[in-house]
Amino acid sequence: RLSTEDEIAFVIAHEIAHVELKHCIKAIQYTAKARQIDPRLGDVVQIGYSIYRRAFSKQQEREADELGVRLMMKAGYKKSGAVSFYRTLEKYEPKYSDPTLQTYNDFISSHPTAKERRERIEKMK
After folding, report:
1. Per-residue pLDDT for 15 more than 70?
2. What are 29-81's pLDDT values in tens digits?
3. Which residues neighbour 52 within 8 Å (Cβ) at sequence distance 6 or greater?
4. Can you give 20-53 as a three-state secondary structure string?
5. What would you report as the CA-atom Rg of the chain, rounded to the nearest whole angstrom?
6. DSSP labels for the chain?
7. Confidence class of residue 96 from pLDDT cuts 50, 70 and 90?
8. How many Å apart are CA 28 and CA 33, to the nearest integer?
């Protein structure tokens, strides 16, 4: 639940950052190039890419967070909106509170945890 204009600004800026950084286009281009070589290869690449994408996605999310914060601040919003957004999101990630599941969650998740994201944003200048 978003409670401030700064939080809403961050979510919008984060999604704009994905577009600006061409994250979706890169995935589409990757598959299209493979299909040019051999149409069946596109499917194989898609499967391989979906496995590889988990780690890659985490990096893209970090990039979108960073650019999103910079965009929102440039528009006059406060970085605290991004911090409070992820602080709220942390409450909805109980699976990460069980240390025995941490390695499993790290492997299958395509996004960094809300706690990790909040801490990275707090350290941003």
Report:
1. yes
2. 766 776 677 777 667 766 666 666 666 688 999 999 999 999 999 999 999 99
3. none
4. HCCHHHHHHHHHHHHHHHCHHHHHHHHHHHHHHH
5. 17
6. ---SHHHHHHHHHHHHHHHHTTHHHHHHHHHHHHHHH-HHHHHHHHHHHHHHHHHHHHHHHHHHHHHHHHHHHHTT--THHHHHHHHHHHTT-GGGG-GGGHHHHHHH-SS--HHHHHHHHHH--
7. low
8. 9
What's the pTM?
0.75
Instruction: State mean pLDDT over 80-96.
Output: 88
Backbone φ/ψ region at 4: left (φ over 0), alpha (ψ -120 to 50), beta: beta
Length of the chain: 125
| Residue tagged 């290869």 (tokens) | 41
Q: What are phi and psi of 4, to 5 degrees?
A: -135, 160
The amino acid that residue 17 corresponds to is A
Give the tokens for residue 103.
Answer: 């390695």
Instruction: Tell me the C-alpha distance between 44 and 121, whole Å.
Output: 36
Average pLDDT of span 68-96: 92
